[in-house]
């Protein structure tokens, strides 16, 4: 595995040859605002923490699965009843 060494294309400049130095940043001019006003709007951040619980107890998991199944059956029966009500109203000429 070979490595190629290439010289830099940047100009080589000695620090001794730099004659002009800008020292204006070293001293403050004393003209600072007494009470600076910031026009930035206040940002409101919201954080939500979600807790996911594992079902370690098989009895609890079985009860939750049974309750979920009953809820699904109830919702299914409710939708079927609504469909039958709409069909009955349509047959009677109300829909």
Layout of strands and helices, then pairs:
Elements: H1 58-91
Number of helices: 1
Element-level helix/strand string: H
Fraction of residues in helix: 25-40%
Name the average pLDDT: 75
Task: Report the count of strand segments.
Answer: 0
What profile does the largest beta sheet have?
none
Measured distance between first and last alpha carbons: 84 Å
Uncertain segments: none
Radius of gyration: 39 Å
Question: What form results from the Cα inertia axes?
Answer: elongated
Helix-and-strand structural type: mainly alpha
Beta-strand portion reads under 5%
List keywords for this structure.
elongated
Protein model, in words:
With 95 residues, the protein is mainly alpha-helical. It has a domain at 56-95. It is 36% helix and 0% strand. The chain is built from 1 helix and no strands. It starts with 57 loop residues before the first helix and ends with a helix.
Summarize the structure.
The protein has 95 residues and is an all-alpha fold. It has one helix at 58-91.
